[in-house]
Amino acid sequence: MTSSDIFISIAIAIITALIVLFLKESRLSGLSLIAAIAGGAIIIIRLFPSLSSLLEGYTALGSISGISSYYFGLILKIIGIAYICEFGAQLCRDASQGAIALKIELAAKIAILMLALPVLTSIVNAVIELL
């Protein structure tokens, strides 16, 4: 992603925010939510090529570092879950559904803890072997 891509994404976000504000003022709150989701989706879709390059870079870094691909894959899954759940929680907050956003965040934390368990087990076993 280049700096011009970032500025385009920021422009899309600002335009979306203005549209949402106008629709809320016009008493069209249902349309304002759709506009907010559409603007967010456009920004996310624009990120896909960069995400692909980023994933390739991290995969190469994992192979160079000597970390097991299993553990490196878990780390990438954990990062993905964190970002996706944060995005979902923010969408819920935008829709004035703070309670649902909290449930999404709780589910994300539990999923991350479950994925991290094998890594933690491996670390504890390594420490035990050193003792």
Task: Write structural notes for this entry.
The protein is elongated, with a radius of gyration of 20 Å. It contains four helices and no strands. Helix 1 (3-25) packs antiparallel against helix 2 (29-65), helix 2 packs antiparallel against helix 3 (69-94) and helix 3 (69-94) packs antiparallel against helix 4 (98-130). It has helices spanning 3-25, 29-65, 69-94, 98-130. The termini are far apart. It folds into two domains: 1-49; 67-131. It is mostly helical.
- Calculate the terminal CA-CA distance, rounded to whole Å: 46 Å
What's the overall average pLDDT, rounded? 87
- Which bin fits the share of residues in helices? over 70%
Decide which structural class fits the backbone. Answer: mainly alpha
Count of helical segments?
4
- Output the radius of gyration: 20 Å
Number of domains: 2
In short:
The chain is mostly helical. It is built from 4 helices and no strands. It has helices spanning 3-25, 29-65, 69-94, 98-130.
Set out the fold topology.
Layout: H1 3-25, H2 29-65, H3 69-94, H4 98-130
Helix pairs in contact: 1-2, 2-3, 3-4
Jot down its keywords.
131 residues, 91% helix
